[in-house]
Amino acid sequence: QVQLVESGGGLVQAGGSLRLSCAASGRTFSSYVMGWFRQAPGKEREFVAAISWNGGSTYYAESVKGRFTISRDNAKNTGYLQMMSLKPEDTAVYYCARSDYRTLSTMKEDFHSWGQGTQVTVSS
Protein backbone atom coordinates (compact mmCIF):
# COMPACT_ATOMS: atom_id res chain seq x y z
CA GLN A 1 0.00 0.00 0.00
CA VAL A 2 1.41 3.39 -0.97
CA GLN A 3 0.86 6.46 1.19
CA LEU A 4 0.65 9.90 -0.40
CA VAL A 5 1.12 13.27 1.27
CA GLU A 6 0.40 16.53 -0.55
CA SER A 7 1.94 19.89 0.27
CA GLY A 8 2.31 23.32 -1.25
CA GLY A 9 -1.23 24.60 -1.14
CA GLY A 10 -2.14 28.05 0.11
CA LEU A 11 -3.74 31.38 -0.65
CA VAL A 12 -2.72 33.18 -3.82
CA GLN A 13 -4.07 36.07 -5.86
CA ALA A 14 -5.54 35.53 -9.28
CA GLY A 15 -2.78 35.32 -11.87
CA GLY A 16 -0.35 33.87 -9.35
CA SER A 17 1.37 30.51 -9.18
CA LEU A 18 1.70 27.57 -6.83
CA ARG A 19 3.58 24.30 -6.95
CA LEU A 20 2.03 21.30 -5.29
CA SER A 21 4.08 18.30 -4.26
CA CYS A 22 3.02 14.73 -3.58
CA ALA A 23 5.44 12.63 -1.53
CA ALA A 24 4.91 8.89 -1.77
CA SER A 25 6.08 6.09 0.44
CA GLY A 26 6.66 2.61 -0.88
CA ARG A 27 8.50 1.27 -3.88
CA THR A 28 5.46 0.93 -6.12
CA PHE A 29 4.90 4.63 -6.74
CA SER A 30 7.15 4.70 -9.79
CA SER A 31 5.41 1.79 -11.48
CA TYR A 32 2.01 3.34 -12.05
CA VAL A 33 0.16 6.37 -13.32
CA MET A 34 -0.08 9.33 -10.97
CA GLY A 35 -2.86 11.88 -11.10
CA TRP A 36 -4.12 15.09 -9.56
CA PHE A 37 -7.78 15.72 -8.82
CA ARG A 38 -9.58 18.59 -7.13
CA GLN A 39 -12.82 19.11 -5.28
CA ALA A 40 -14.52 22.44 -4.74
CA PRO A 41 -17.20 22.90 -2.05
CA GLY A 42 -20.47 21.33 -3.13
CA LYS A 43 -18.98 19.81 -6.26
CA GLU A 44 -17.82 16.38 -7.36
CA ARG A 45 -14.13 15.53 -7.31
CA GLU A 46 -12.81 16.19 -10.79
CA PHE A 47 -9.81 15.17 -12.81
CA VAL A 48 -7.02 17.73 -13.26
CA ALA A 49 -3.99 15.96 -14.75
CA ALA A 50 -2.29 12.59 -15.04
CA ILE A 51 1.20 11.38 -15.89
CA SER A 52 2.44 7.99 -17.01
CA TRP A 53 4.70 5.88 -14.84
CA ASN A 54 7.86 7.08 -16.59
CA GLY A 55 6.73 10.66 -17.18
CA GLY A 56 6.62 10.17 -20.92
CA SER A 57 2.92 10.94 -21.33
CA THR A 58 0.66 13.49 -19.72
CA TYR A 59 -2.99 14.41 -19.97
CA TYR A 60 -4.86 17.48 -18.74
CA ALA A 61 -8.39 18.62 -18.17
CA GLU A 62 -9.37 21.28 -20.69
CA SER A 63 -9.89 23.80 -17.90
CA VAL A 64 -6.21 23.68 -16.88
CA LYS A 65 -4.47 22.92 -20.16
CA GLY A 66 -1.70 25.41 -20.87
CA ARG A 67 -1.67 26.65 -17.27
CA PHE A 68 -0.83 23.56 -15.21
CA THR A 69 2.08 21.15 -15.64
CA ILE A 70 2.28 17.71 -14.06
CA SER A 71 5.63 16.04 -13.50
CA ARG A 72 7.26 13.37 -11.38
CA ASP A 73 10.65 12.42 -10.02
CA ASN A 74 10.60 8.68 -9.43
CA ALA A 75 14.03 8.75 -7.82
CA LYS A 76 12.51 10.96 -5.12
CA ASN A 77 9.13 9.20 -5.09
CA THR A 78 7.53 12.60 -5.61
CA GLY A 79 5.02 14.05 -7.99
CA TYR A 80 4.36 17.70 -8.75
CA LEU A 81 1.70 19.99 -10.11
CA GLN A 82 2.93 23.41 -11.23
CA MET A 83 -0.01 25.78 -11.42
CA MET A 84 0.27 29.13 -13.19
CA SER A 85 -2.15 31.90 -14.14
CA LEU A 86 -4.43 30.76 -11.34
CA LYS A 87 -8.07 31.75 -11.42
CA PRO A 88 -10.66 31.96 -8.61
CA GLU A 89 -12.40 28.94 -10.15
CA ASP A 90 -9.27 26.88 -9.43
CA THR A 91 -10.08 27.15 -5.72
CA ALA A 92 -10.46 23.63 -4.34
CA VAL A 93 -8.86 20.91 -2.28
CA TYR A 94 -6.28 19.23 -4.49
CA TYR A 95 -5.58 15.51 -4.15
CA CYS A 96 -2.83 13.40 -5.61
CA ALA A 97 -3.58 9.80 -6.38
CA ARG A 98 -1.89 6.70 -7.69
CA SER A 99 -3.55 4.47 -10.20
CA ASP A 100 -3.26 0.70 -10.17
CA TYR A 101 -2.71 0.75 -13.91
CA ARG A 102 -0.06 1.85 -16.36
CA THR A 103 -2.58 3.29 -18.81
CA LEU A 104 -3.42 6.98 -18.44
CA SER A 105 -6.88 7.52 -17.05
CA THR A 106 -9.07 10.45 -16.07
CA MET A 107 -11.44 8.30 -14.02
CA LYS A 108 -11.12 8.61 -10.27
CA GLU A 109 -12.37 5.02 -9.99
CA ASP A 110 -9.05 3.87 -11.50
CA PHE A 111 -7.09 5.52 -8.68
CA HIS A 112 -7.05 3.53 -5.45
CA SER A 113 -4.47 5.36 -3.34
CA TRP A 114 -5.19 8.94 -2.31
CA GLY A 115 -3.55 11.66 -0.28
CA GLN A 116 -5.37 13.74 2.32
CA GLY A 117 -5.54 16.80 0.09
CA THR A 118 -4.16 20.33 0.21
CA GLN A 119 -6.26 23.49 0.03
CA VAL A 120 -5.68 25.95 -2.80
CA THR A 121 -7.52 29.26 -2.57
CA VAL A 122 -7.31 31.84 -5.34
CA SER A 123 -8.59 35.31 -4.50
CA SER A 124 -9.91 37.70 -7.12
Strand/helix succession: EEEEEEEEEEE
Distance between the termini: 40 Å
The count of DSSP E runs of length 2 or more, i.e. the number of strands, is 11
Q: Helicity level, as a percent range?
A: under 10%
Shape: globular
Radius of gyration, Cα only, in angstroms? 13 Å
Q: Could you list the spans in which at least 5 consecutive residues all have pLDDT below 50? A: none
User: Structural class, please?
Assistant: mainly beta
Count of DSSP H/I helices:
0
Strand composition percent: over 45%
Mean pLDDT rating: 95
Could you give a short account of the major beta sheet? 7 strands, mixed
Report on the structure:
This protein has 124 residues and is mainly beta. It is built from no helices and 11 strands. β4 (34-39) and β5 (46-51) form a beta hairpin.
What distinguishing features does this structure have?
124 residues, mainly beta, 7-stranded mixed beta sheet, 4-stranded antiparallel beta sheet, 11 strands, 50% strand
What does this entry show, briefly?
By secondary structure, the protein is mainly β.
Give the SSE map.
Elements: E1 3-7, E2 10-13, E3 18-25, E4 34-39, E5 46-51, E6 58-60, E7 68-73, E8 78-83, E9 92-99, E10 111-114, E11 118-123
Parallel strand pairs: 2-11
Antiparallel strand pairs: 1-3, 3-8, 4-5, 4-9, 5-6, 7-8, 9-10, 9-11
